[in-house]
Write a structure and sequence with these properties.
Elements: H1 7-29, E1 42-47, E2 50-54, E3 60-61, E4 67-68, H2 70-78, H3 82-90, H4 93-102, H5 104-121
Antiparallel strand pairs: 1-2, 3-4
Helix pairs in contact: 3-5
GO molecular function, one term: prostaglandin-endoperoxide synthase activity
Domain EGF-like: 28-66
Keywords: EGF-like domain, Oxidoreductase, Signal
């Protein structure tokens, strides 16, 4: 009635089904494996493939700490891009001459801010957040 199928096709289909089901079961075991939490927040597994992101002190909220608080949103909106900051810090020699020569009290404060701004421009690796026991 039905055409005979080759046993290798059945075995290959079974193995493919087994691999796919095992892969899905492994992914469901720990939801933190894909690092879903954003903005350097900590992922805490809750069992059954679920997770919770600890957004404390990050300025963000939401399931994956992806929504900025009002204050964070305002600060990010007003912050200039790294290219703009670089342009302001490198160019306009006349401004720096005034600061260096005529405003010594402000000079130290401005240079400290410049160093802090420039240090934030350097990329650093993200914090490893998967081996925490809470």
């Amino acid at each position: 009635m039905f055409p005979a199928r080759e046993p290798t096709l059945l075995v290959a289909s079974f193995l493919l089904l087994l691999v796919v089901s095992t892969t899905n079961a492994t992914q469901a075991a720990d939801g933190c494996c894909s690092f879903p939490c954003q903005h350097r927040t900590v992922c805490m597994p809750s069992g059954g493939g679920q997770y919770t992101c600890d957004c404390t002190g990050s300025g963000y909220y939401g399931k994956n700490c992806e929504i900025p608080t009002y204050r964070t949103w305002i600060c990010e909106s007003l912050r200039p891009t790294p290219d703009t900051l670089h342009h302001l810090l490198v160019n306009y020699k006349w401004v720096w001459d005034i600061i260096n020569n005529y405003l010594p009290s402000v000079h130290s404060w401005i240079i400290t801010k410049v160093y802090l701004i420039r240090s934030r421009m350097v990329d650093s690796p993200s914090v490893y957040t998967s081996e925490h026991d809470y």
